[in-house]
Design a protein that fits this description.
Blueprint (H helix, E strand, L loop, with lengths): L1 H15 L5 H15 L5 E7 L5 H14 L3 E6 L2 H11 L3 E3 H5 E3 L5 E3 L7 E5 L19 H11 L4 E6 L17 H8 L2 E7 L4 H4 L2 H10 L19 E4 L1 H14 L5 E5 L2 H14 L12 E4 L20 E13 L2 E10 L6 E6 L12 H12 L8 H9 L7 E5 L2 E3 H4 L4 E7 L10 H11 L2 E8 L16
Parallel strand pairs: 1-7, 1-8, 2-3, 2-6, 6-7, 9-18, 10-16, 10-17, 14-15, 17-18
Antiparallel strand pairs: 4-5, 11-12, 11-15, 12-13, 13-14
Helix pairs in contact: 1-3, 9-15
């Protein structure tokens, strides 16, 4: 067995191509021990902060397993995270929902049958996976519980969770449960093998994005006043004022492209202000929705795709409007029928879209508005004999199933999580010192690490930077 271990490590080292840091070497040893142990209910948890070489190491591990003909499946919580995972690992990755659930005729999704055996399921961005009963249309409503049930129902399957515990956890939780080894042991009866990447790599020290992200991460848990914790002496980090913002953004649109440029904000209200300004002053758009608009789907939708193929349009998917056919006002709401080119899909989607969500300060259609829409649509089927029949008709109504969308030029930190862009504009928001708690630092850290190549800091406080005066000048 020792010979097998050493051969695996040799192939892995060749594919990695660099000298390991101390924690990378220890993580490799821990993974090899985990992988070759004969334990069915075992899980490997790999944590690593930005700049520790986590993606490079995971890519090398995945490629080693594939080269040696072991079975591997790559998963992520969102479509954009799956796209990023696929790009760095060099093989297809799927959303967890797409892999583990199967649609029933009534529109709900049951846990599917796992036909895989002796397979290692790698799950990236595991900090985003929630354990609460949040979406009862899927299985039990708990994505984490269902994932465990699906994977370990297959013969000799195991899980690998990959994540960064400094990032934003699922809404309403202090730590992502999928990265909490005690929670996993206690609630899922698994032997957790854990490794952490701790040292910043030499390559990361040359990056202002990663250098500053590390500085921000170290603010978590310190409860100290935020004074001079950032540096802007790096070419990939640029401070700009509000007056220079539109010119810089227009330049990035021409260099990086709209798909690889994003603005990240603290709130939907801030995002709405940016989106309105961009549409009016850069694209000269006056209509609510027009050809060329970039939008984000903000609620899972299963109506406008081939439901026989277990397909759906996911919350967080980004699309470009290719044409708008007509607008209607109905049921007290505004709708547009349009075609969408959704990133990652080969086919265009023709659908009704709900325009009221475009500018609301809510993340999606509010609970009150949802029930108001449902009640208004239900009135169309008043002749049906029973409430059950009326609700069945409502569930098949094309306006009730309209895509909920927001403009995607500026988005919140939670919506950006799991994705990366070549150019990121970051507005830190107007915050008092009392608001600079761990939640804020996790948000700022997550936002910083969405940038691959260039990060623009908009209206950041002067006294957050080394060598800057205390007074704000932006």
């Amino acid at each position: 067995m020792a010979i097998v271990h050493e051969y695996f490590k040799r192939v892995l080292a060749d594919l990695f191509g660099l000298a390991y840091t101390s924690s990378q070497g220890a993580s490799v040893d821990a993974f090899v021990t985990f992988f070759f142990r004969d334990r069915d209910r075992a899980l490997f948890l790999l944590k690593g902060h930005a700049g520790t070489g986590k993606t490079s190491l995971v890519a090398a591990i995945v490629n080693t397993l594939e080269r040696l003909h072991y079975r591997v499946i790559l998963l992520a919580p969102t479509g954009r995270a799956a796209k990023v995972f696929s790009a760095y690992a060099g093989m297809p990755a799927f959303t967890i929902h797409k892999k583990i659930y199967r649609r029933r005729e009534n529109g709900l999704f049951d846990l599917g049958f796992n036909t895989s055996s002796e397979t290692l399921f790698f799950v990236d961005e595991a900090s985003m996976i929630g354990a609460g009963n949040t979406d009862t249309i899927f299985g039990s409503g708990s994505l984490l519980d269902d994932l465990f049930l699906y994977v370990y129902n297959g013969r000799q399957n195991r899980l690998v969770f990959i994540g960064d515990d400094a990032q934003l956890p699922p809404v309403g939780t202090p730590l992502g449960p999928a990265l909490d080894h005690e929670y996993l042991r206690r609630n899922h009866d698994v032997e957790v093998n854990e490794a952490s990447l701790t040292e910043t790599t030499r390559q990361a020290t040359d990056s202002g994005i990663l250098f500053n992200a590390t500085r921000i991460r170290k603010m978590i848990g310190r409860r100290e006043k935020a004074t001079a914790f950032l540096a802007h002496r790096f070419p990939d980090v640029t401070r700009i004022s509000g007056g220079d913002f539109l010119e810089a953004l227009e330049r990035e649109y021409s260099v990086a492209g709209e798909e690889e440029t994003v603005i990240i904000c603290r709130s939907n209200r801030q995002a709405n202000r940016f989106n309105a300004g961009i549409r009016a002053r850069l694209f000269y758009r006056e209509e609510a929705l027009g050809s060329g608009d970039r939008v984000m789907i903000v609620h899972n939708n299963y109506f406008w795709v081939d439901r026989r193929d277990n397909d759906f349009i996911a919350n967080g998917d980004v699309a470009t409007v290719t044409r708008v056919r007509k607008h209607v006002e109905l049921y007290g709401f505004h709708f547009a029928h349009a075609s969408l080119d959704v990133q990652g899909r080969a086919d265009e989607i023709d659908a009704w879209m709900l325009l009221d969500t475009l500018t609301t300060d809510q993340p999606a259609l509010s609970r009150d508005d949802f029930f108001r829409l449902q009640a208004a649509v239900e009135e169309d089927y008043a002749t049906e004999a029973s409430r059950r029949k009326r609700l069945e008709k409502v569930r098949e109504n094309e306006f009730f199933n309209a895509l909920q969308i927001k403009y995607a030029y500026a988005i919140t930190g939670h919506k950006a999580q799991g994705g990366q862009w070549n150019a990121v504009f970051l507005d830190a928001g107007r915050v008092n010192e009392d608001c600079l708690d761990d939640d804020y630092w996790r948000w700022l850290y997550t936002a910083f690490t969405r940038a691959r190549e260039r990060l623009f800091l908009v209206n950041f406080k002067n006294d957050w930077f080394e060598g800057e005066p205390a007074a704000d000048s932006f």
